[in-house]
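G., before I forget:
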Amino acid sequence: MTGNIFGKLFKVTTFGESHGKALGLIIDGCPSGLELNESDIQKDLDRRKPGQSKITSARKEGDKVELLSGLFEGKTTGTPIAMIVYNKDQKSKSYDALKNIFRPGTADFTFFSKYGIRDYRGGGRASGRETLARVAAGAVAKKILAYKNTKIIAHTKEVYGIRAETFDETEIEKNTIRCADKNAAALMEKKIIEMSKQGDSVGGIVEIIAKNPPLNLGTPVFDKLDADLAKALMSIGAVKGVEIGEGFNVSNLKGSQNNDVFYKDKKNKLHYETNHTGGIIGGISNGEDIIIRIAVKPTPSILKEQIAMDVSGNKKNIQIKGRHDPCICPRIVPVAESMVALVLVDAMLRTSVARIEQL
Amino acid sequence: MTGNIFGKLFKVTTFGESHGKALGLIIDGCPSGLELNESDIQKDLDRRKPGQSKITSARKEGDKVELLSGLFEGKTTGTPIAMIVYNKDQKSKSYDALKNIFRPGTADFTFFSKYGIRDYRGGGRASGRETLARVAAGAVAKKILAYKNTKIIAHTKEVYGIRAETFDETEIEKNTIRCADKNAAALMEKKIIEMSKQGDSVGGIVEIIAKNPPLNLGTPVFDKLDADLAKALMSIGAVKGVEIGEGFNVSNLKGSQNNDVFYKDKKNKLHYETNHTGGIIGGISNGEDIIIRIAVKPTPSILKEQIAMDVSGNKKNIQIKGRHDPCICPRIVPVAESMVALVLVDAMLRTSVARIEQL
Amino acid sequence: MTGNIFGKLFKVTTFGESHGKALGLIIDGCPSGLELNESDIQKDLDRRKPGQSKITSARKEGDKVELLSGLFEGKTTGTPIAMIVYNKDQKSKSYDALKNIFRPGTADFTFFSKYGIRDYRGGGRASGRETLARVAAGAVAKKILAYKNTKIIAHTKEVYGIRAETFDETEIEKNTIRCADKNAAALMEKKIIEMSKQGDSVGGIVEIIAKNPPLNLGTPVFDKLDADLAKALMSIGAVKGVEIGEGFNVSNLKGSQNNDVFYKDKKNKLHYETNHTGGIIGGISNGEDIIIRIAVKPTPSILKEQIAMDVSGNKKNIQIKGRHDPCICPRIVPVAESMVALVLVDAMLRTSVARIEQL
Amino acid sequence: MTGNIFGKLFKVTTFGESHGKALGLIIDGCPSGLELNESDIQKDLDRRKPGQSKITSARKEGDKVELLSGLFEGKTTGTPIAMIVYNKDQKSKSYDALKNIFRPGTADFTFFSKYGIRDYRGGGRASGRETLARVAAGAVAKKILAYKNTKIIAHTKEVYGIRAETFDETEIEKNTIRCADKNAAALMEKKIIEMSKQGDSVGGIVEIIAKNPPLNLGTPVFDKLDADLAKALMSIGAVKGVEIGEGFNVSNLKGSQNNDVFYKDKKNKLHYETNHTGGIIGGISNGEDIIIRIAVKPTPSILKEQIAMDVSGNKKNIQIKGRHDPCICPRIVPVAESMVALVLVDAMLRTSVARIEQL
């Protein structure tokens, strides 16, 4: 019944509820000798936190991370790395009205049904606030990947049907949507504000790219790299779909179109002329960029009046107060990057000995 | 570096290569007292095997399963259940031409790159033949689900852009495509034969439905039921995308449209008026049907001439002989059912004690 | 390379070094609905802490535990339970002299050899202080066992050859040695003080009894209950041996002596006339008390002058300052109880579904 | 509820009952490129098999192993290695008399209590015959260790109080007891034959030595090398105790005696003047020989009349026919070697990346 541990050799155990004392995590399995400090982590936490713009929730989360263990003189020691972020500004009172209510589109009912008890304050453990710990862990994974010259970039690809048509990496952090297409970003933002005024929210698609990933990651047949990525990303609350490379578009393709053809570059290294497969074939990374897209549902918490259910099973009209994200895509960006980073690092550690001569 | 074990409490370890002596598996964790015999398994193996129609590969696989352990007087004993299927008709010779060739769209290169050695006969471990063991294990999982009145049904939803518009469960096994829409099935079959004549293949979409699934399955935050399903299905060689409920369509929806509204049925049981979420919310099954779709790529092995790479890195035109599946969807159907069944049974076992009073 | 997670379904992840900021743990998998508060934990931490008497180390550890998550209105919710104990009184300076020294009998060299970096302050992660997190986790496990009327009792059975001959449970917490034989306790204490005056330490044997354990715990063939207990107890730093029931004395017995004979009690329940096997047979608990003994080595940190090695490989005479435990047995008692409690709870959760009708 | 999988990165899944169709195993995680053939395995199976001398059971087991997968042209490929041994000579009929009987000292009752069904033929899964699969897997692990110049040697150290006083490795396979002291071997054999004539059995102690083990194996704090060894060895049916280095003798030692002192050898390599610790300190191998002893109980199946229990709970005098091992120590020798080999190989794989620069 444990489900709060991620990874096999780079294991991340997270804890914490939306309105509890603190959230945090332990990383077990980080190699020693990695330079690490709190600002490495804080940087990404700040990208995740709410209140960054008018299109994200205004709640002040602060989210100052503290490293508790696993470091000595600025370097990891191979022992568990624990981090904690204390919750501030926990206005639990404001949630009393939801005490006996199962909100539609949320995990209120399923958590209660399963556990018979529910921390109803802000969604408890089912709150999106849980992803804070993922981002903190992911920041460590990213440092390891940087050591191997691998970089993870996520961006908002689509919002309510508006799709980015161009990709300029430098644009991503310049707009509130984290879209790599300046023009699409403007349209998306306009649409989100419009929906927000209606007290509604919208869904979208986020794309994640692992640039220059290590070769040979992934362990067939069940722990294929794409399988592990799918699980990692689908475990994010708002995600309803994952696709790699051509993804669902393969349904429109012939084999002769979809197969990627090899070539050798000037350094005699093997490459592919196309990347329909998205950098993974037979469950193993082939050295090309890994390209993944995820479907992000519209935030279920909306201002618009909705029909909920109370614990006695009666329908009840409710309006959820507070400011919620009208489109969660820009805040999913750092979370998705983190999950991909965690999968790649775990796969790297697992792949370190594949052949007897590597022992 | 182990990747051939699936599940946490209902663990399936598989082995075997396309042209080795045998394929098989061990199930560790099956509860005792389940009635089981070889015909329970054989039934599904026969649905997976090639040569069932003109649109599937004509190779004669036979695939007679033998139960080796874990049973006594027709019932499981709680000890490991081993099964074996001996390979017959292993014409390894016919693969000699591929000895030094990496075929495009296959795992030939990535396996060689990772392990430095490659069983090139028919794809070795990377062959689709590996799914035989998944189906055999899945048949046991299905028997357990049947004991709880849960049924898994998969069907071909789309082929090369042709989409099923109606759903009649009784149609599925009546056509070679395993499509639940008779008319669409006819169009699909026509298109596949056309492509086959061109020496090409096509992709599609398979949908899997778990009818009457147990409530409360899934373990947040990382081992959510949808996350486990995504991994299980993405681990099938041909699958490039997984979506649950509305899936990628959430990008076109507002929160007010996507949230499912509760109601109580006549027996006072909680239900939802819609099922946008696909039976899983907050990572836990809510009792509604679980609905998943997977993107199935066009078979990479095609008769058409293609550009491959030899081990020295030179391009080489090749034509892959033998009869391959021009569309693998109908044979993915039993495999996908099996993976979903394995995930649900594993989740059931993990969910058995969520509350102290269940101990 | 992860080694800081204990258990399969009741998973405990611990962190922290002797002189870092804090120690703590996360329990993932605790059933919901268990009443729990900080004093449940503190009680056992106080039994473990140093400075309880003249025969234990005088370091003031304070060790106030704080519960951070997983609870709502005094009960567990099924989400991860995190606990933290901040380190106070971290006089790291006093360890500067040991910076370049590998002390004999400690993990100084092996940690450095493996990780290439070493937190030398007080042993870092290899310090006995790490057991604090085990005891905190064990306190939760004990509450679950209490719910099932199972109790774990440990006591010092032998010290430097002096063996307890009688067993009176009420005596255990009355003497500084935690020995259940009042007379032996007096002799042991005298011997320990004598050794302490010589700047030396002594080893001993601790016995752990699980009274009224649940039937059917343990999962053959590799995860037998005795195998899991052996691992759990051998993972305590000072432990060099584990035996169950007759243990090493089986070498002196005939089969006809060692086999336990069944009988039915007045309530028609199966029992054994003897308990040579120590409550576990074929790796499964048979309902009788589980009886285990562990060999506890003499504390390696002694005041007496010793020959150490410096990082350059030169021998160096050292005297380790500070007050260390001349016999660690009484402080191992709560640690050993905790490890046994953790194993039993984990086995209970794993054993909840053995038969199909329990699903 | 799965308990038939051993290891974390070198995973061994075993199956089979004493009188089922076959026994076997799958190794998942063996590096590619290892030369391996059936005679590597058969050699050790022959050392384990019954009927080798007048002091071992006379049952003809044959035990011809067949490699089914994971090899190509005589080398491992990194895919699962499956092996099978078909059972011959399964005279199940002879066990009908035991159908409703729980024999004392065996797992008959606990298996029935847990699973509600029991394969009573020769102990079913609880039979010592299960260790065949351990030995087959261990043979592969030994080949990997040989590649690193590590060798595992086990020998019978004590039988019914008679202790080997000298150690001559070349003697071990020369006597039926596998004792390294020729004179003690003669006394042991005489005693065993005497007991056998009385229809009784005796216990003993087996010692296992890992010569020239790799440095740095083991992962504190829970997966210490000694903890993993203890679990592995205690999981052997007949074992009731495990000790490392001085083991239970630490209770008689002072710290100043038990601490091992370092020295540098001529090649400037660190060593220890003594090996009280048995090659493992702080849970990590220090490069010295690893020395372990296990307590082996007297075989419970004896010819002498005993009091059993029938399923209705009535006492019943029984005499167990057939020839059983009057002392199982010599046949435990290859099993214990195998378990140690499996632990070391698994630890090697886990230890391959401890530092960032090893990535």
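Chain D has one domain: 5-358. DSSP finds seven helices and 19 strands in chain D.

More on Monday.
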